[in-house]
């Protein structure tokens, strides 16, 4: 395949060399003549283990060329990969001027040369909505009705500097964002032979992927360092603690606790987070990430209330499926569902609760204390018959169990599946 790559930085240069090594004919385009001259001399303009050898080999075989501008032969190419920079702007957003300019140049090039059926894949990290709100309008403005000739795709990269070549051929996943989540033949061809999970998603889902990954990597690093500070203050081996922590691939290093949904609660998480905050304060651990957990969780409770009541009329008939902390449990201790019920009642909604595992007469200890502090729970509880013979304006499913019942409802929201 003939492929043009706009931008010969770390991402673009790695992609150019790796694609050429697979037998594709690649043209790298960058306005920096120093980079272009290096590639034309068979050298990599950036330092990355193994990259210089790939560039030299591709140069020798005539598979990798470079230019400071779009040359006429690109009109015959099948794929253009955009890898220009999106550096931070003063306000923290991405500076999208390079993306916009590269897109304008490409659109004008296509208009002048009557290019047809071109796939343009963007790999630069960009704000969700950029394809639909910035890039596609540029193509539409330049090409008019002929903009349908351009197949715009978003294909984020997951390369780490110093292991970029290895990551290119063995990525953790392949994410491809298209207009209708349909397969992209050009990207399927260049990814042929690469073993990785493939996700065809919408533009916005693909655009946010890199943000989610990098933010989580930052969270993990910060969390590890905060725990390390506490351990150092308490004369605990952080290395031993880390060894124990990462050995748990059932809960700690796993998909658990990572699905967007309800707030955390129960007898353990809030209590232990507060206690760890206290330990950090009294030892000088300075755990700003850990300190933010409770506040963020409270904010999520407020978000869930706004989420479920959006467009709901005052006095609406509302059913909550589950009020205890977890399904098949009567544990009410710090249940976020109790807080949500309180907010709904305060706002004037007619609320009922069905939780077959919560029987007020059987509660004891701290759970009985919760009932004493929130006596409204008892009068909200209804039977299954009540659930199935009532017409509900809204059902809030805190258990993902609504499909088990015959419910007549205008709207059912599963708060464990935010979408």
UniProtKB/TrEMBL annotation:
Domain UDP-glucose/GDP-mannose dehydrogenase C-terminal: 319-404
Family, as annotated: Belongs to the UDP-glucose/GDP-mannose dehydrogenase family.
Active-site residues, Swiss-Prot/TrEMBL: 268
NCBIfam families: NDP-sugDHase (TIGR03026)
Protein's recorded name: UDP-glucose 6-dehydrogenase
One MF term in the entry's GO annotations: NAD binding
Uppermost EC category: oxidoreductase
EC identifiers of the protein: 1.1.1.22
Reactions this protein catalyses: UDP-alpha-D-glucose + 2 NAD(+) + H2O = UDP-alpha-D-glucuronate + 2 NADH + 3 H(+)
GO biological process: polysaccharide biosynthetic process; UDP-glucuronate biosynthetic process
Annotated binding of substrate, by residue: 158-161, 210, 257-261, 265, 326
Signal peptide annotation: none
This protein's record includes keyword Acyltransferase: no
Binding-site list for NAD(+): 30, 35, 86, 125, 161, 271, 333
Pathway as given in its UniProt record: Nucleotide-sugar biosynthesis; UDP-alpha-D-glucuronate biosynthesis; UDP-alpha-D-glucuronate from UDP-alpha-D-glucose: step 1/1
Any Pfam family matching the protein: UDPG_MGDP_dh_C
UniProt keyword annotations, A-Z: NAD, Oxidoreductase
Organism the protein comes from: Mycolicibacterium poriferae
SUPFAM superfamilies (UniProt xref): 6-phosphogluconate dehydrogenase C-terminal domain-like, NAD(P)-binding Rossmann-fold domains, UDP-glucose/GDP-mannose dehydrogenase C-terminal domain
Origin superkingdom: Bacteria
SMART domains: UDPG_MGDP_dh_C
